[in-house]
Amino acid sequence: MASAFENAKKQINDSAGFLSKEYPDKSRFKKAIELLKRPQRVLKKKISIRLDSGKTETFQAYRSQHNDARGPFKGGIRFHPNVSEDEIIAFSTWMSIKCAVVGIPYGGGKGGIIVDPSLLSESELERLCKKYAEFLTPYIGPWKDIPAPDVNTGEREMAWMLDSYEKKVGHHAPATFTGKPLELGGSQGRTEATGLGGFYVLASYSEVTRMIPVKTTIAVQGFGNVGYWFAKFATGVGYKAVAISDSSGGIYDSNGLNVEKLSQLKEKYGSFNKIPKTKDHELITNNELLALKVDVLVPAALENAIHERNVKDIKAKVILEMANGPTTPEADAILSSNEVDILPDVLCNAGGVTVSYFEWVQNLNGYSWTKEKVIKELKKIMDSSFEEIYQVVQQKKVSYRKAAYILAIKRIVNAMMLRGRL
Ligand code: GLU
Asked: What's the CA-to-centroid distance between 89 and ligand 1, angstroms?
């Protein structure tokens, strides 16, 4: 399988072809596209921390700063054993595209540490977060690079990192991190923002394709913060979530699952595969979930979930990507030729970074918004971004992903040209 960064570069190339005729100076445009296919800077360091046992352990850490033509770098930090330099660079590239798709004034960044956080104690994790933030301190800040949560990180980690950063610079600077706890300048609505943003995309898509919520079945792969909130909002207005999974397996009920009840069961049993089978629901595997005959399939877990080998099993008519990079370009090409609409990650999961942007705006102003205001502003951005993409889909007869990339690349390339970077 091609690497995530190979995939990201391929997606850029695919859409650049559609744009080149808009730029009379071909060699300048070509140079811009070449620049977009590499990060501006990749920071890496081996970070050693003291374990509770007294021993020392070392972890490989990264931060990729992809492109800052449209504004400071922005993007999450993930803790996962599968983190690699290639993957972090790919994610930072997708963040540049994502921020441009929704028109917020940032470039793309992404950080990560190769670690399984479930194997560390809370104090070991705190030491790791603080050391990582110390390492990043010269390179981040409200007008440089603004990290946020991603896979296996959240408010707690942001609070530790903020404290470490502020100690080092010697003053408060809450706008350096987003996704913070409310008490430290976090925003109302940040927790549910990614799921809610995806739900707004589903609602807009349903409207233009006349899909009726109560007649629409959904399968959601992944029940972390993103999958949970997406499923909760969708089922809240009547979409039928017939299957939901976590990394251990899935639960299926043809009559539709109750998301709150499922969340309680997960809390009680720890993982889906430990939930006892009842007459109301069946246990299925993640592969079975992906192959279900549903209207909308929602990959909301990790990258490369839908690939060359399992794409032939997909029966859904629509794929709404809530994870980053869940469909490989090869699978994407096959699905598109089968007329499956793929609503791309760079739009569907942009609600998270959009509310991160609101958090940054609030921090810079020393003021906080009500939840109602956050939700209203998020809806405005998600709805208008969908509409812009939909117009390109209609006019150029391209896929939703291509349309999103065309819009985003144009915005980034224009910013690079205006700055005279080419
Ligand atoms: N990690 C999230 C993403 O991939 C959020 C990034 C942010 O809020 O900066 O979009």
From this structure: 14
